[in-house]
Structures are given as C-alpha cells and as structure tokens.
Amino acid sequence: MALDFGFGFVSGVTGTIAGYPFDTVKVRLQTQTLNHRLYSGSLDCFIKIAKQESILGFYKGMASPMFGVAIINGIVFSIQNISKGLFDNPDTYFSLAVTGAIAGCVQSFICSPIELVKTRLQMQGIGQQRKLFALSTHLYKDPIDCIKESYIRQGFQYGVMRGLSMTLARDIPLFAANFPAWQFFVLYFSPIGKEADMSMHMSLVGGAFTGIVAWAVSYPFDVIKSRYQAARDHAYKNVWDYAVRSFRMEGWQVFTRGFLPCTLRAIPTNAFTYPVYSFLKQTFDTTLDDNV
Fold it and tell me: What Gene Ontology terms describe where this protein resides (cellular component) (predicted)?
C-alpha cells in the first residue's frame, strides 16, 4: 500500500504540472455567466489570460492541487488496489468500475476542500497584471488563508466542505469509468493485452484516452461544483438550488461549458498520470521480485 501511495503521489505531481493551465481556463469558462461574459471561448480565454496576467496567470492556486492532487492520486491507487480483494477476478470491467467508484468516493472528502481552494484562487485577480506571483488586490493570500477565511465565514460543513456532494457526484462515476477505460485500452492496443508490453507513446495515448472517457461521463457535475464553490457564500440555499437556477437561466448548455479545455487538460494530465504510475509500479515490483 505504501508503494502504491508513493507511485500515485509522483504521477499526480507530473499530471498536475502538465495539465494545470487548461484547468484554469476550464474553471474560468465554467464560472462565467451569460450576464457577465469575460471570454467568448477557450482560445479567447487563453489569449486574455496570457496578455493580462502573463504565463503565471495560468498557474494561480497551483500550490493547493500540486500536493493535494498528488496525495489524492496516492489514495485513489491505494484504495483501488485494496478494494480488488473484494473480487475473485479483480480485472473484469465490473470489478474495476466498483473498485474505482470506492476509490473515488473515499478521495472526494479530501479532494473537495482542495478544489474549493483551487477554484477560488483561480478566480481572483482576473485581468490583473501578475508579477512574481503577486497580485495588486486579492481576497486570499494563499491556500491556507483561503481555507481559514472559508471556515471563519461559514464553518467547516458549509465553508471548508462546500461542494462536497457535487464532488462525490462527479468523482464516483469518474473513477468508475477511469479504470475500466484504461483496461480496455490495454487489452486492445497492447501486443498481448498487458501494460508491460505497451510502448511509452502508446501508454501516453492510453492515459489521454482514459482521461477523456472519464471526464465525458462526469463533466456536468464538475461544472456545478466549480460554479457553486466560486459563488458568493449566501447566494444559494445549497448546491441543488444552484444547479436548478443555472438550468433555468442558461439552459442545458451551461452544464457543458468549458468541456473543450477540460478535454485538452485531460490529454497531458492523464497521459502522464496513469502511465507514470504503471511504469513505477512495474519497475519497482520487478526489482522487488528480483531481490526476493
């Protein structure tokens, strides 16, 4: 379990660095409303962030997910491997979906406050010139300050854990699709249906494919989560109230907003996350077997 956690941690760091700029664009597009549109689309958002906030603008709030996502990845791969013990044949699509769902459920309780911080830091200082990670005005100094202020204003349940229900609704199906999608790719694109026989470039393609499939299944819940976590504290009764109002005001299209940058983000993020984990696991497992 310790090795699984370590492998997941390393893969999480590499995946976060690779895909974070696309995540910032995704969140910006998700949270804008029809009455207050700052960006006409994904490309316009990329250009404006680069011009107005410099390249560093794409990495706002990355300190929180950098280590948070790394820890979450470690938890996901550890829980998923432990959960395989529930099945006689843990490599069937059904078994992988169930173990993935269990892992997604467990990690949501850690992921939710991390993403609350990430979302709020990504949203502050929009359009401001950014130099040496300093903004002329800001609501939060850093991730710790964001968590502290959220707790002071609304407490633990409604402040720090704001959006937990949508995180669960997103991550349970996301990880339930993630592991079977990777297995599907390995079975059909590996010479003999095993990870160890896949070339590095095919592993990267497989990771990207896995991410796209997983996000396609769960994306509407991610939109609701991001918008609710970024909204004013007392603007809505709860996350469901926010979802209903968003649908009535902006139609079903609101739940697809930002999907393109999310897909683009999934390519580099997952292209590194799963293959890096698999590579480390195969390398160290082989080394340990040789030393026995």
Answer: mitochondrial membrane
Q: Would you say residue 183 has pLDDT above 80?
A: yes
Give the integer Cα–Cα distance in Å for 188 and 21: 31
- Per DSSP, the three-state class of 279 is helix
Q: Measured between alpha carbons, how far is 93 from 87 in angstroms, rounded to an integer?
A: 12
Length of the chain: 292
The tens digit of pLDDT for each residue in 187-237 reads 888 877 677 677 777 877 888 888 889 989 899 898 888 888 887 766 677
Among candidates 82, 96, 95, which has minimal Cα distance to 210? Answer: 96
Q: Return the residue matching tokens 């995704």.
A: 26
Q: How far is Cα of residue 84 from the mean position of the Cα atoms in its chain?
A: 23
Mean pLDDT of the chain: 79
The rounded distance, in Å, linking the Cα atoms of 150 and 170 is 22
- Whether 136 has a pLDDT exceeding 60, the answer reads no
Residue range 13-29: mean pLDDT, rounded: 79
Query: Which tokens go with 13?
Result: 């760091």
Q: Is 204 in contact with 275 (CB distance < 8 Å)?
A: yes
**Of the candidates 53, 37, 36, 27, the residue with the CA atom closest to the CA atom of residue 128:** 53
pLDDT number for residue 109: 93
- Domains in the chain and their CATH numbers? 2-291 (1.50.40.10)
In contact, 257 and 189? CB cutoff 8 Å:
no
